[in-house]
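Exam prep: given the inputs below (a chain plus uridine 5'-triphosphate), describe the expected output before reading on.
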Amino acid sequence: MDSSLRKAKNILVKYNQEHLLQFYNSLNDSEKNILVNQILNIDFEKILDLYNNSKIYNKCSIGMISPLKHINKSKISKDDYNKYVTIGENFIQKSRFAVVTMAGGQGTRLGIKGPKGTFELDILPKKSLFEIICDKLKNANLKYNISIPWYIMTSTQNHEKTVNFFEERNYFDYGKNNVIFFKQSNLPLIDLDGKLILAEPYLINEGSNGNGDVFKAMKNNNIISDMKSKDIELVFFSGVDNVLLKPVDPLFIGLTLYNNKEIAAKTIFKENANSKDWVFARKNNKPGIINCSDFVEEITELKDENGDYLYRELNILEHLFTIKAIEKVSNVELPYHLAFRKNPFVNYEGMKQVPESPNTYKFETFIFDAFNYFDDIQLLRVDDEEEFSPIKSFNGKYNPERAKIMYKKCYNV
Ligand code: UTP
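Solution:
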């Protein structure tokens, strides 16, 4: 028996994962190599630790929290509005601004083949989620006579398909040099019995490890140094699926700069008072997003002296970080959360099976956990009718049909 295989077997015995080699004898040589190398490169200790400990993460009690101030876009005076927009526009024109689109997710709820960014909105002509973002960047470039660098985070699962998609469409005329892809990391998926699963008889099923990996991925792929070489000072981060996204928003940028904040987030109002959605708050005096499900009734109606709710700001994954802030959080370990997801697997007979309901835990870090590393954050509440219509699944609230209606309404198409 070759020494790599022996090593791999020992690891699997130690961690009770011997089933991963059950089809080994039927594999060809190159498949055997892939599987053994994958086993040798997985940090089983870490996976086990995450499996046992990330379930208990995020306990939050009412005694730990205090409110976090926000600015409501609809209540900004005309003078202040113009002031912020001017500051934002002056900054954008200096070419110190970049955009990062986090597109490394697997889009499991939507369940389409291929990267979610390639999903087309059913308008005339059809537009992919990537093209929708690109259109807005092109408009900003034209308006301000600049060339905003566009960084796109992919994952092992979708990198090639994403790059090919851009190649086939000539980068939507954005300029190949202005679109920079970088790959995030993976972690194996785990089933309900704590076992890793196979995607193919020769391949352990892994998933991207959450959008919180963006900072480390930027560091490891020299994206931070690339940005520094371009004198970038402020970066906008978002997901790929909000068709009403404003990636270059002078108001948001100007407000953040005026208030001298290192990080910022857009929010929408939580209409459903008692929903368990996580809200912005200070936890142990640090800004963040808290799971208030155990005490939502106690905080949801609380208001400040102006009659504004204290704990009703929802996260929409739209953030600004200064380059210094990015550097700082690229060196910290963000906590992992457990997501329960549907993932295909190879069953004990060697047949590939697609489950009808969630079957696996996925370990993910979230970008918003980086907020805890700062003393303050600029929050800007926007109207979801104008700025938030993501595509998450076909059946839920955030579905393609709603996104199409909202897009047509907002952009008059
Ligand atoms: P979601 O959590 O909505 O994930 O990510 P998703 O991949 O789109 O869909 P589900 O949860 O599997 O159904 C919000 C944004 O964060 C990105 C996604 O691509 C999306 O733009 N993301 C998520 C990453 O870049 N990497 C990840 O590991 C996870």
